[in-house]
Design brief:
about 40% strand, alpha+beta, 4 helices, single chain
Amino acid sequence: MKIPLLFILGMIFFIPLLPLVSAQTEQSILFEDDFSGNLSQWNVTEGTYTIDSGVAKSATDGTTSVMFSNETFTADEFTLTFRANANVGSLNDFVFLEINDSYNLRVQMNLGSGFGGLSVKFLEKVDGSSNTIFTDQNYSYLADGEWYSVKLYVNSGSYSFKIWNESDSEPVDWMYEGSLDPDLDLTDGYRIKLYTANLAVTEYGQYDDILLTVTSPPTQPTPPINNIPNGLNVVASIAIVAGFLLFLIFLYMESGLNTQIIIYGTIGAVIIVSLLGYLLTGS
């Protein structure tokens, strides 16, 4: 059997998969805490936070809980992701990127009747005045006791934002995109601030998997290529089948009727074609 020819044919099938591997976004981690250990990366300035089953849990006595990351950051292009959960009836959960008392960015999850009712807000505070960048009160899934993931990408004055219930997959598209106030200069240095407020006794908020990275562009889930025109789907399917048949023909010709080689080659070809089919159809 002539190995070079089979090797070349195998590469023809594998090469289309290589860009998917090489296109992974490189990222530099600025801050990371999954709360599997202790709160050594944080400074609690009000109330209490404790580690409970691998998550950060606020006070349960009705008081406000506040803590800051010990480290200060200056990157003006970054991705912040975190998970939040509220086991309450009237909680307001906040995650800040705070420069000082007069300047910050914050994500606010309102699960009670206050602050506009059931909603998710993204706000900026500039020179002491708060500005609501957007408010979404259409989160019918926003409910007590549910975990939500949030991703915020900031790049030199612009932002992209998404939030999703953890029972769902991460949305491929950003939910909101826009511009920040030019006077909000994150290069002045900011800390991550967790703030849980407006609680009744026994109510509490939880945070987990805080991750701040420098990424360009931010890592996004890869959608299956199932929204290309039907005509292209047909052409792609025909090309895959034709390529598969050609592969078997060449394999038969080169193997000298070696049954074992044909069997193994066929199995390998089926696996490769299945992978390509998944990339084209998502199933």
